[in-house]
Design a protein that fits this description.
single chain; alpha/beta; Rossmann fold; Arc Repressor Mutant, subunit A; 3 domains; eleven-stranded mixed sheet; 18 helices; about 15% strand; globular; AAA+_ATPase; AAA+ ATPase domain-containing protein; P-loop_NTPase; ATPase_Atu1862_pred
């Protein structure tokens, strides 16, 4: 079935239609300076396609929340939910086929990136049975897939850019059709923009942006000047879902409107200068008065100082006894026990590190270990070892020094998987199954576990082999450690019983 979405009219006055079926397979990129009508275009597309396909909108400014009243979209205020909660919400939205608006208004740039990445991750990681077609609209996409590092942390940028790359590069097979809008192509990561096959280019003024827009539309450089002459709501269209040749079109009206409309000129209020002076330059409100402590008399102050000196002369300074090696080993074992208890929770493998660390600190305090609680970087290293089934004493074992060095060649989130495989190889246990690898990586996806093994093998650290029965063996390069054959499709519980 072909569904044609009416976007407006061409410059010649003919109806301008968009093939929704083709759009689901080829994705869309919208560019235009602020005020060119990008948000209006997205709103028109969403309104026209709402009866036909599930939608979700990543909305950094809260412009699209009005779709909830008119078309029944579920508005999710990201400020009220954790990253884990938003990931679960994304999964459930796909399972139950509910259109959503992720409202990121009120969050700073880093938290917007983290929460959008979590929600997109939930959409992406849902089981194959729920890969229903969905339009995923990302307004101001340069915020979530920046071409260069900004003021946010590298971790937040990596999470957000990875989620956007998955959406545009690998989302099609999962039914996700990415629609991204940006003010400038130069600010958008190239690997994200390059995956779109349909383009709607609006008004832009910078030479570099006009040149890139002309290249994408197959226009000659001398024709790039035409982008300066486009009016608000006018776009040049190209792509299999729009037109086989560059086509000028004007976007039609919408049924809903954003909460923050375009500013309009208003008459200035009539007020006398003296009234304005009295209002603007009025004295600021008084600061809250803090109660002042009564000053002690000189005689009383001398008495207090003398009493303090006498107490210091009488009381010996406490000397903390040195910690013996045995006590240090016991504390380390208690800390490892606390960490194992945290990881024993059913969903511990899929929770973000910040939440795990908070629970770990609370449990350590309950156990009386507040003085030896590691900081967050040390906790990350402990977590990597724990997910591999290793304790803190591994750092003292010479046999694992080479393994740790090799693991450091991988991204931090993959090191635990590598060390888990290394342990199985050293002990001669069966090769971990895809389910065990996915859990150690913090994912539900068995496909991701297999891709992870492929990546580690491409780095020259391991060699994977399958025997005639489909059982897998992994050998560590140069160390000559090899796992016993293991079933990649085994359940995690079964795998654990074999290891024991």
């Amino acid at each position: 079935m072909t569904v044609a979405i009416e976007m407006g009219h061409t410059i010649a006055g003919a109806p301008a239609a968009l093939d929704l079926e083709e759009l689901l397979a080829t994705r869309l990129l919208v560019q235009g300076n602020s005020g060119s009508g990008k948000s209006h275009l997205l709103r028109r597309l969403l309104e026209q396609s709402a009866p036909w396909v599930q939608q979700t909108i990543i909305d950094p400014e809260g412009d699209f929340v009005s779709l909830g009243e008119r078309f029944g979209h579920l508005v999710i205020d990201a400020e009220e939910h954790t990253e884990r909660g938003l990931q679960a919400a994304g999964e459930r939205a796909r399972i139950h086929r509910v259109s959503t608006v992720l409202n990121l208004e009120g969050l700073d740039a880093e938290n917007q990136m983290r929460r959008a990445a979590a929600f997109l991750g939930g959409l992406f990681e849902v089981a194959r049975d729920h890969w229903y077609p969905m339009l995923v609209v990302v307004d101001e996409a340069q915020l979530f897939a920046p071409a260069v590092a900004g003021e946010v942390s590298d971790e937040a940028r990596k999470l957000s850019l990875g989620a956007m790359t998955n959406l545009m590069c690998r989302g099609r097979k999962r039914g996700l059709a990415g629609i991204i809008a940006t003010q400038r192509l130069a600010k958008l990561a190239k690997n994200v923009a390059a995956e779109a096959s349909n383009f709607l280019m609006g008004r832009t003024f910078l030479d570099i942006d006009m040149a890139r827009a002309a290249d994408l539309l197959g226009m000659e450089r001398r024709q790039a000047e035409a982008f300066r002459d486009l009016e608000r709501g006018q776009f040049m269209a190209l792509g299999p879902a729009l037109s086989r040749r560059p086509l000028g079109l004007r976007i039609g009206p919408t049924d809903t409107s954003p909460r923050n409309g375009t500013p309009r000129l208003m008459a200035m209020p009539e007020a006398a200068l003296e009234d304005a002076r009295a209002i603007i330059l009025a004295a600021p409100p008084p600061e809250p008065v803090r109660p002042q402590r009564r000053a002690a008399s000189p005689d009383l102050l001398d008495q207090l100082m003398a009493a303090k000196s006498a107490a210091l002369d009488i009381r010996p300074e406490p000397v903390e006894p040195p910690i013996s090696a045995e006590d240090l080993a016991q504390r380390r074992e208690r800390v490892d026990r606390v960490l194992r208890a945290v990881l024993a929770e059913p969903d511990a493998g899929f929770r973000v590190i910040g939440v795990l660390y908070q629970e770990f600190v609370v449990r350590c305090r309950i156990e009386g270990l507040a003085s030896v609680v590691p900081d967050l970087p040390a906790f990350r290293r402990m977590l990597t070892r724990a997910r591999a089934g290793l304790g803190s004493d591994v750092a003292q074992d010479d046999a694992w020094q080479d393994v740790s060095v090799r693991a450091s060649l991988l991204p931090e989130d993959m090191q635990g998987v590598f060390m888990m495989i290394a342990r199985a190889a050293k002990e001669g246990w069966p090769c971990p199954s895809d389910a065990a690898i996915a859990r150690a990586y913090g994912s539900h996806s068995l496909r991701r576990a297999r891709r992870l093994l492929t990546y580690i093998e491409e780095q020259g650290l391991i060699v994977c082999q399958l025997d005639g029965t489909g059982r897998r063996t992994v050998t560590l390069v140069e160390l000559a450690w090899a796992t016993a054959p293991g079933d990649p499709n085994a359940e995690e519980a079964e795998q654990g019983s074999l290891a024991l």
